[in-house]
Amino acid sequence: MGFARTVCDGNLHVSITYSSGFEAVSFPLLLEHEGVEARPASVEFTESPGISVYRSGASYTEYTYTHHGEFVVKLPSAWTDNVNLAYVVPEKGVTTNLKIDLSPFARDEAAYR
């Protein structure tokens, strides 16, 4: 338990899998809480995505690339609510925001100490 706490304490692990019509080389993201931003300290992104091929008709072929990313974000403090996850899906090129409530994870914090 002590080892796991030392390794994981203050780190948020984010795992994202998405499918797209385009192959991507990155999936930029950051977390924001009350004006403070936290970017991933480490990123493992699919170098060779899964590829599905669909044929519709004799001459039209469509490809779907399935990407996977593992991100570790070192949080500067205990963020328990109103966290914003901002990410850019490569083919769209625009930032998308997703509100995340981390309070369910904070409720049992005493049990892990």
Describe this protein's structure:
- This protein is mainly beta.
- It has one domain (2-112): Immunoglobulin-like (Sandwich).
- It contains 2 helices and 8 strands; from the N terminus they run αββββββββα.
- The protein has helices at residues 2-8, 103-106, and strands spanning 11-20, 29-33, 36-38, 40-45, 50-55, 61-74, 83-88, 95-100.
- The strands form 2 sheets. Strands 1, 4, 5 and 6 form a 4-stranded antiparallel β-sheet that branches. The chain has a 4-stranded antiparallel β-sheet with strand order 3-2-7-8, with no helix packed on it.
- It is elongated.
- The model has no long low-confidence stretch (mean pLDDT 79).
Topology:
Elements: H1 2-8, E1 11-20, E2 29-33, E3 36-38, E4 40-45, E5 50-55, E6 61-74, E7 83-88, E8 95-100, H2 103-106
Antiparallel strand pairs: 1-6, 2-3, 2-7, 4-6, 5-6, 7-8
Question: In brief, what are we looking at here?
Answer:
By secondary structure, this protein is mainly beta. The protein has helices at 2-8, 103-106, and strands at residues 11-20, 29-33, 36-38, 40-45, 50-55, 61-74, 83-88, 95-100. It has one domain (2-112): Immunoglobulin-like (Sandwich).
Index terms:
113 residues; mainly beta; four-stranded antiparallel sheet; 2 helices; elongated
- N-to-C span: 9 Å
Q: What's the Cα radius of gyration?
A: 18 Å
**CATH structural fold name:** Immunoglobulin-like
Low-confidence region ranges: none
Order of helices and strands: HEEEEEEEEH
- Counting DSSP E segments of at least 2 residues, the number of strands comes to 8
Integer tally of domains? 1
Please identify the structural class as seen in this structure.
mainly beta
- Total count of helical runs of at least 4 residues: 2
CATH architecture grouping: Sandwich
**CATH level 1 name:** Mainly Beta
Net shape: elongated
- Report the helical percentage: under 10%
Average residue pLDDT:
79
Largest sheet: 4 strands, antiparallel
Taken as a percent bin, the fraction of beta residues is: over 45%
